[in-house]
Write a structure and sequence with these properties.
alpha+beta; Pseudouridine synthase; 2 domains; ten-stranded mixed beta sheet; two-stranded antiparallel sheet; globular
Amino acid sequence: MIYTPPDRPAAWREGAILPVDKPKGLPSFDVVETVREGTGAKKVGHAGTLDPMATGLLIILVARPATRLQEACMHLPKTYEATLRLGETTPSHDTETEVVERTDPSGISRSDVDDAREAFLGPIEQVPPMYSAVQMEGERLYEKARRGETVERPPRQVRIDRFELTDWSPPEVSVRIECSKGTYIRALARDLGEKLGVGTHLTALRRTAIGTFSVENSWTLAALEDTLF
């Protein structure tokens, strides 16, 4: 691992790995640009983005040799804490779009959810959301989705190593998920809702770990900006 001395940001231009706790509402690339501007490094990358509504761990890679580790870091397993709302469906499978369908979830019990989530453990085939950055036919899927278009998306194999309930407060359910690169937690919420027959969408998402990197040992954006500027 590349050592990142917290009191010597000028040295980061020689290569550094910065774990950052992204706040809600901020695009991941804004964090990348903050580090690029503050360090003056020509090359700044990341090890996997988060949706604007999500919070939690981003790994920012500053200059070589850190940027050469991007592929290895992106393949590290991810850990998330998420809150799902039963009985409501949105086009984006989260709160970024309006609810388009409601179904009474009162007949769903905790054991129903617990039984249903077992179907998603291990290697699974997952269809990416229309509201995603996956490229098809020369453009991002979210560009098509914003025009009201829907296209067939081939499923991708991902792996769910852990999918456990951490809180039951219906219609909201909190879960902890450990998964492979490329897993869409929004799609997992969608598929769980379909299996339960009531529809589900994501209302909160926080990434707490990437491999051995933990959000508990990361920079807040405010502290990072104070150090850089």
